[in-house]
Amino acid sequence: MAAKKSAKKPNVSAEELLGYYREMLLIRRFEEKAGQLYGMGLIGGFCHLYIGQEAVVVGLEAATKEGDKRITSYRDHGHMLACGMDPKGVMAELTGREGGYSAGKGGSMHMFSAEKHFYGGHGIVGAQVPLGAGLAFSDKYKGNDNVTFAYFGDGAANQGQIYETFNMAALWDLPVIFVIENNQYAMGTSQERSTSTPDLYTRGEAFGIKGELVDGMNVLAVKEASEKAVAHCRAGKGPYVLEVKTYRYRGHSMSDPAKYRTRDEVQKMREERDPIEQVRAMLLTGKHASEDDLKAIDKDIKAVVNESAEFAKESPEPALSELWTDIYADDTLPQEAS
Amino acid sequence: MATELLMPALSPTMEEGTLAKWLVKEGDEVKSGDIIAEIETDKATMEFEAVDEGIVGKLLVAEGTEGVKVNTPIAIIGEEGEDMSAAPAPAAAEAPAATDQVAAPAVSTAAAVEYAPSDTSPDWPAGTEMKSMTVREALNEAMTEEMERDENVFLMGEEVAEYQGAYKISQGMLDKFGSKRVIDTPITEHGFTGIAVGAAFGGLRPIVEFMTFNFAMQAIDHIINSAAKTLYMSGGQMGAPMVFRGANGAAARVGAQHSQCYAAWYAQVPGLKVVMPYSAADAKGLMKTAIRDNNPVIFLENEILYGRSFEVPVIEDFTIPFGKARVEVEGSDVTLVSFGIGMQYAFEAAEKLAEEGISAEVINLRTLRPIDYATVIESVKKTNRCVTIEEGWPVGAIGNHLSATIMQQAFDYLDAPVINCTGKDVPMPYAANLEKHALITTQEVIDAVKQVTYR
Asked: What is the mean pLDDT of residues A308-337?
């Protein structure tokens, strides 16, 4: 961590750090706004916020290139913003409007972007993992060197299909990075109550898949691990497991009273390990930015988020005719044209 | 600038709640993440956090107040030094954009639909050269032709490659296409089906062979939640152009877990197309169409039919469109509707009935999603009587759905209630005599026809 004395100085430019700061802050402010809109009844159903976990997606995305793919489960807003999807389109999908990425037909848990190679947004815990390996299969089949990030949580890590996938990914050398976002609670069940062995990064060992434990509150540590895993996959050496230890500040979903952990535990994490505060401190102590510079960024981000919220409120509900579209692709699929 | 804190909705179903307790008082400074109140929802007591930083100006709702509607202002938060004694004019609570549109257009309600006239064109021109072929060979030929045509098509499943197929459907394909495109999988249906669906998202066109559809139950989440729904959930951005195929229904003496018909299960799912061929010509023409279709297609084969021979037209690139039933036998007294292996009972019954002077029209549906309603309705309007035949279970059967459709579309033409001949409402027994009776018998079809013709 930045404050750690004698630790090797992070080899990172001011520009890069400012980029991470901006991206993580965008996710945090976006999610806070989504929480507000949910409270106002503008967002319905389930809404799972990413607050606290921002360094995970921002760090992993730092090692990607065009054509790389990503897929996750339903705590997905952060992943979408980190891969460059438009906050307006994401927020408008949360409010179920025509301007949303899925024209209002997917919602918070089911959102996609063919353009940004974001393959969802899946509501069934664990299902995204073989799907992600399948995306990697398609890249290997086509003979390019793209990689796929298949994100899942500590809860999904106990699903059987994960291990079926590990087996085939290793057997077929698929270029897939299994990212276990370990936020330590599967809804209300702590990892120690659900998981027989705590070290999830070792779960691939039985299949010959290398795994690594990563500090998910430190964006630079995540980026470094991502670079290593990506290089491994691009070189055709098969899959890689990253267990990224992180923490979610908010409840599992908006309706979670979070009685399974103490307020102090959450507060301690926020005060001592917050991923955004860590980068902020590095920027200030390294004299990469002044308080005023950061205030200006905060202001920019707030404007972007407010703009997305306004768009999401003003975009009309989808036309009723949308009910009957996109059930079948009777012509060609957009993905074929690309 | 002072802002109002509104009573939040803290669950998908909450409309009002109790402001149980304030944890701040007027004049307190709050920052993002501080808990300011406890709110009882319809589900639980929730801690309500501040989102922005500021000073608590005024608490507008006393603690202990019950029935506070969502979006009611409950406090004012402002900046230091600001006068917040007077509440700002309450902004109208923002509600989701009201829609005064009426109910959605019921495009698919059978009663509201005028079906296009049935396509009565022959599957191939008269005089076409024919050759005899088994269903097994027809499926193999169809897949081979399509894999030659499109390099993004590949076949995966248990024993499809080196073993040459558990039922030899993929015989010779490994030699022809290599292990990149004919892929043996471990016995992990859930996992490899998910991988295949992901590969389809990635632009490939997988054919997934299930050794039998019984094992696809381990993978049904990916077939329905991942493959069938993604095009819709993504607003048309991506879908799963692929085929799930394999033996379906009862074989012979393999017992309850290996003998189930999934026709009605899959036919219920929007986003899937469902095919159940009977003859080798059906199998070939429909398989080629399935592989080219841009949607997930369920292709239900039958182990008993694999080895049967039929005449298949010798036509380059022979395809049969989905949603086109085939009138196999023309008749005037009763309409028999079936599909897949059910056709054998229909044919046998029609033959025996003819000997007794009852003329049955026999319709082979071939695809169950989409269903060719027009051909069925037109036939029933002519014969005024209908019996449906399938090996699957009776509750929620394809025949039930056809009966309802006929009732809505041709009620005035019916001279008798439609009868559904189905498999019995029991798990499949092993004993030979019991198994025979658990399935349909030709005699049951004949009896049903006599009932609707009052003979």
From this structure: 81
**Is residue B226's pLDDT more than 80?**
yes
B195 and B230 assigned to the same domain: yes
Domain for residue B107, yes or no?
no
Mean pLDDT, range B11-18, rounded to an integer: 86
* Interface test with chain B among A36, A86, A135, by most B beta carbons within 10 Å: A135
Residues B296 and B335 grouped into a single domain: no
Least confident of A20-24, A60-64, B4-8, B282-286: B4-8
Judged on CB neighbours under 10 Å (0-12, 13-18, 19+), B437 is middle
Return the residue matching tokens 């398989």: B287
Using the beta-carbon criterion (under 8 Å), do B194 and A106 form an inter-chain contact? Answer: no
End-to-end Cα, chain A, rounded Å = 42
pLDDT at residue A198 tops 60: yes
Say if the Cβ atoms of B198 and A132 lie within 8 Å: yes
When divided into structural domains, chain B yields a total of 3
| Domain that residue B277 falls in | 131-313
Of the residues B313, B336, B357, the one at which a domain ends = B313
B190 is annotated as an active-site residue: no
Q: Is B258 a catalytic residue?
A: yes
Residue B231: list chain A partners with CB under 8 A.
Answer: 326-329, 333
| Residues B222, B272 share a domain | yes
> Is there a domain that residue B17 lies in?
yes
Closest to A89 measured CA to CA, from A74, A79, A103: A103
Residue B92 forms contact with A (CB below 8 Å): no
A333·B154 Cβ contact <8 A: no
Judged by average pLDDT, the poorest of A33-47, A79-93, A219-233 is A33-47
Number of H helices, E strands in chain A: 12, 8
Residue pairs spanning A and B at CB distance below 8 A: 235
Run of H or E residues at B443: helix B442-452
Report domain A14-312's class. Answer: alpha beta
**Beta pairing class for B296-301 and B242-247:** parallel
- How far, CA to CA in Å, does B224 sit from each of A45, B194, B196, B296, B347? 21, 11, 13, 9, 34
Note the pTM of the prediction, 2 decimals: 0.91
Q: Is residue B305 part of a domain?
A: yes
Nearest residue, CB atoms, B201 vs list A36, A101, A134: A134
A99: confidence class by pLDDT, cuts 50, 70, 90? very high
Q: Look up the CATH number of the domain holding residue B221.
A: 3.40.50.970
Q: Which of B4, B137, B141, B189 is catalytic?
A: B189
* Domain-located, residue B85: no
Contact at CB, A119 and B238, closer than 8 angstroms? yes
Structure tokens, B221: 């989440």
Query: Residue B414's domain is classified under what CATH number?
Result: 3.40.50.920
B94 pLDDT more than 50: no
From chain B, pick out residues whose CB is under 8 angstroms from the CB of A333: 231, 238-239, 241, 294
Q: Is the ipTM of this complex over 0.90?
A: yes
> Which of these, A235, A234, A214, lies nearest to A223 by C-alpha position?
A214
Beta carbons of A41 and B96 less than 8 Å apart: yes
Going from N- to C-terminal start, the domains of chain A cover 14-312
Q: Examine the domain organization and report whether B265 and B164 are in the same domain.
A: yes
CATH number, position B41:
2.40.50.100
Average pLDDT score over residue span B185-190: 98
Mean pLDDT, chain A, as a whole number?
Answer: 93
